[in-house]
Amino acid sequence: MMQRALISQPRSLHTAIIMDGNGRWAAARGLPRGYGHKAGGDAVRRVVQAAAELGLGTLTLYAFSGDNWQRPEREVSSLMRLFHSYLLSETEKCASHGIKLNVIGRRDRLSPPLIEAVRRAEVITSRGSALQLNIAIDYSSRDSIINAARLIADASFSREAFSRAVADAMNLKGPSSDVDLLIRTGGEQRLSDFMLWESAYAELYFTDKMWPDFERADLEIALRSFQARERRFGRLPEAAAI
Ligand code: IPE
Ligand code: IPE
Ligand code: MG
Known about the structure:
Blueprint: H1 2-6, E1 14-18, H2 22-27, H3 33-54, E2 58-65, H4 73-96, E3 99-104, H5 112-124, E4 131-139, H6 141-151, H7 159-169, E5 181-184, E6 203-206, H8 216-227
Parallel strand pairs: 1-2, 1-5, 2-4, 3-4, 5-6
Helix pairs in contact: 3-4, 4-5, 6-7
The protein binds 3-methylbut-3-enyl trihydrogen diphosphate (2 copies) and magnesium ion.
């Protein structure tokens, strides 16, 4: 009922979120940054549940960028521990709610136990059809484009073939990897190497809210904003195209 009022055809929608602001959320409370990441994990659980209830087709969450390896080792390892514990605690829940979990990004720099947890989560949730949940870990959009170019070493490839190769290169499954709505929390207005190819016609939505404060209501506000926009894809608006 809610989802029909909120957005038409939610199933075909690809929403992507750059979950930013965990560190500043913690600093504002006089807490170490790790507390912000932990609170960010709770926000992920809330937003995934809301996305499944709203019937959104695909949700892609940017959890760790290729450049985030440059952070202090202590912060990186606490984030890796969080990803691992998220997978351990959420895999069965995702499976029982029909959420199909897929991790995109490089795997070779993750620890073997984390790689195994990812593999297990993907197998156990593989039959889910209520929500496609992509979590981007060690993700770089530029790397994914380079990998796609390597896959298609053929000068005559089409745009569609390249688009499929970009999706395949990062294990991004689904009928289309194009992003419809791209949300970034935390007040910054940049893409930070996220979904550069897939966001060619994405509607951008920026909010000053720090990621740990992001609630279901904030997702609904972003979806309403998306719903009110006119997407043109380079064409003229309907009314003017006579
Ligand atoms: C986003 O929050 C989470 C990751 C990048 C892993 P940040 O850690 O970037 O938080 P800020 O931007 O420093 O507040
Ligand atoms: C982007 O946030 C990466 C994630 C949210 C996972 P960053 O905080 O790393 O981006 P910059 O450094 O502000 O561009
Ligand atoms: Mg940040």
